[in-house]
Amino acid sequence: MDRKQLIVANWKMHKTPAEAAEDAAAIATALGRLPDHSSVALAPPFPALVPVRERLAQTQLLLAAQNVHSEAQGAFTGEVSAPMLKACGCDLIIVGHSERRAMANESDAMVQAKMKAAFQHEMGVILCIGESDSQRNEGQTFKVLDKQVREAVKGLSVTGVNSLVLAYEPIWAIGTGKTASVDQVQEVHAFLRETLADCFQTGLEKDLAKQTEILYGGSVKPSNIKDLMSMKDVDGALVGGASLNPETFVSLIRNGFDL
């Protein structure tokens, strides 16, 4: 079983529902039919999920949410649950993004609880992990990533593993214009694949872990996506700023998938 390629647009807190729907339609129309081994997902803000899903109907593009609460319902003002996101038509949920970890003080335990909620309601998870500039400079990259992965997947079932995508986003490269070299990215992705496989004990789970897609995120652009995805253990990208303009994002996808 070969791993698939996946490119995800994280629109963060940009675009009104109308703007997001218009851009989603433009992206879907420009791309047309994708190769069977390649997928594209759009992650608009919560208010735009339903309008974007309507525009993606009858297309191959997937819908992703940017966050989720660990509980299915309750007195959690301002939060959104997995059942709500499923009802909106979400296929995937981004969990543990560095901005959530930093601004909302999300711990590894909170990230794991959110993952379990998504899996319980049969949605895939894009688990974001990454080290800060100071952690990299202090030689802590692999220690930090190892802890983030192990804490997140602890206790997961085979089904959970099969629905998991890892997204390596070095914090020092997000929105800074800095990009890790392709050799640095490959080294980290290979480490993450080995770490994930080491987290599971049975043969079936190990096989599934080997098939986990690992994305890179950190100032990904049309000009560097092809080199990044040429690396053995890079299966795609989680794209921020370069996904906001439909033409730029389509160009990035075509370069990444070699269309």
Automatic annotation (TrEMBL):
Enzyme class: isomerase
Gene3D superfamilies per the UniProt record, alphabetical: Aldolase class I
GO BP: any one term: glyceraldehyde-3-phosphate biosynthetic process
Known pathway: Carbohydrate degradation; glycolysis; D-glyceraldehyde 3-phosphate from glycerone phosphate: step 1/1; Carbohydrate biosynthesis; gluconeogenesis
Keywords assigned by UniProt, alphabetized: Cytoplasm, Gluconeogenesis, Glycolysis, Isomerase
Listed GO CC annotations: cytosol
PROSITE patterns associated with the record: TIM_1, TIM_2
Alphabetical list of NCBIfam families matching this protein: tim
Name assigned to this protein: Triosephosphate isomerase
Taxonomic classification: Bacteria, Pseudomonadati, Thermodesulfobacteriota, Desulfobacteria, Desulfobacterales
